[in-house]
């Protein structure tokens, strides 16, 4: 059989997903392709999205990914939503099977897989003290996945306390403390793992860091989910302070690995793809 996968989102012209999934197909010894279905938000959006989804139904895909800004928008168009995606409130992967569309979210799990790959001991120590910076959609996925995987000590620091409080209440995290970004700066070294989930530090606004890094050491792991640039200023500062760092591009590969697994039941090894992706991002 020939697998047909795709991606919806906007803008997606420079997406690396076709490269990643076509490589997975090759590695798995399967035939197929991965196409981009860009849905522009600028023109009479509400009608257009529904029309485009109707057109997509005719493509007879085996599965597709959903990226910004449609991870929530897609939900009413699905026949079923998996428990994890429902709890996260966003879908990034859809399986199309027997005429039904079923939504999943592989972001949180992909993040955790990539983290454990880089730091295997993280998976075994549920008592790690974790600080999440940010309280948007990305933070929500990671927070949910970490908490259902048994991590007990997760604090949240966000510019707006209200959004962090909403997340804490949503997942009934009684142990979670809420910090301002200033407070986080002052106590950062107390955390084994610090996860940056906001867009601050992305290429368009490169140079900014959400917090300044003072007293970190090799005891601290600093993780940034941004992958353009590969090394954000936050990661560079953390590295210079002596902390161990975890790069965002690895999450991109592992969330894709899990999506591919949902579509094909095959888990492909990432191995050399980390370096190859790095070269593409830096080139
Ligand atoms: P995503 O879905 O990508 O996580 P989002 O839902 O818009 O995006 O969330 C953005 C996150 O980045 C929020 O935590 C936001 O903080 P607020 O809740 O205070 O808005 C954070 N964020 C964005 N720009 C920021 C900035 N310049 N400084 C600090 N935090 C910022």
Radius of gyration: 19 Å
Main CATH class of the largest domain: Alpha Beta
Bound molecules: 2'-monophosphoadenosine-5'-diphosphate
**What is the count of structural domains?**
2
CATH architecture of the largest domain: 3-Layer(aba) Sandwich
Main beta sheet, described? Answer: 6 strands, mixed
Spans where pLDDT lies below 50 across 5 or more residues: none
User: CATH topology of the largest domain, what is it called?
Assistant: Rossmann fold
What fraction of the residues are assigned to beta strands by DSSP? 15-25%
For the terminal residues, how far apart are their CA atoms?
Answer: 34 Å
Helix-strand sequence: EHEHEEHEEHEHEHEHEEHEHH
Please describe what this structure looks like.
- The chain is an alpha/beta fold and 283 residues long.
- It has two domains: 2-105 and 251-281, Leucine Dehydrogenase, chain A, domain 1 (Rossmann fold, 3-Layer(aba) Sandwich), CATH 3.40.50; 108-247, NAD(P)-binding Rossmann-like Domain (Rossmann fold, 3-Layer(aba) Sandwich).
- Helix content is 37%, strand content 19%.
- It has ten helices and twelve strands.
- The protein has helices at 17-28, 45-57, 83-88, 107-118, 137-148, 161-170, 181-187, 233-240, 249-264, 273-282; strands spanning 2-9, 31-38, 63-66, 80-81, 93-97, 100-104, 129-133, 153-157, 178-179, 193-196, 221-224, 244-246.
- The strands form two sheets. A six-stranded mixed β-sheet has the order 2-1-3-5-6-4. A six-stranded parallel β-sheet has the order 9-8-7-10-11-12, with helices on both faces.
- Strand 1 (2-9), helix 1 and strand 2 (31-38) form a beta-alpha-beta unit.
- Helix 4 (107-118) packs across helix 5 and helix 4 (107-118) crosses helix 9.
- The protein is globular.
- The two termini are 34 Å apart.
- The model has no long low-confidence stretch (mean pLDDT 96).
- The structure holds 2'-monophosphoadenosine-5'-diphosphate.
- 2'-monophosphoadenosine-5'-diphosphate binds at residues 134-139, 158-160, 163, 197-200, 210.
């Amino acid at each position: 059989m020939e697998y047909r996968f795709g991606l919806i989102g906007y803008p997606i012209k420079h997406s690396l997903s076709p490269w990643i999934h076509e490589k997975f197909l090759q590695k798995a010894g399967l035939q197929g392709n991965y196409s981009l279905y860009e849905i522009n938000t600028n023109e009479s959006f509400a009608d257009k999205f529904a029309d485009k989804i109707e057109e997509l139904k005719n493509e007879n895909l085996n599965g597709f990914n959903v990226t910004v800004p449609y991870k929530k928008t897609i939900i009413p168009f699905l026949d079923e939503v998996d428990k994890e995606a429902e709890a996260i409130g966003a879908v990034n992967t859809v399986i199309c099977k027997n005429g039904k569309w079923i939504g999943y979210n592989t972001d949180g799990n992909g993040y955790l897989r990539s983290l454990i790959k880089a730091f295997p001991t993280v998976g075994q120590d549920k008592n790690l003290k974790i600080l999440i910076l940010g309280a948007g959609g990305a933070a929500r996925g990671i927070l949910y996945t970490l908490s259902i995987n048994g991590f007990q000590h997760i604090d949240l620091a966000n510019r707006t306390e209200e959004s962090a409080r909403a997340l804490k209440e949503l997942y009934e995290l009684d142990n979670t403390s809420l910090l301002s970004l200033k407070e986080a700066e002052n106590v950062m070294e107390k955390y084994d793992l610090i996860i940056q989930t906001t867009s601050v530090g992305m290429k368009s606004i490169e140079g900014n860091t959400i917090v300044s890094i003072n007293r970190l050491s090799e005891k601290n792991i600093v993780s940034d989910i941004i992958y353009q640039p590969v090394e954000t200023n936050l990661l560079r500062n953390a590295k210079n302070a002596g902390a161990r760092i975890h790069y965002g591009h690895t999450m991109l590969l592992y969330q894709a690995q899990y999506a591919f697994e949902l579509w094909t039941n095959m888990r492909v090894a990432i191995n050399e793809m980390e370096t190859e992706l790095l070269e593409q991002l830096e080139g």
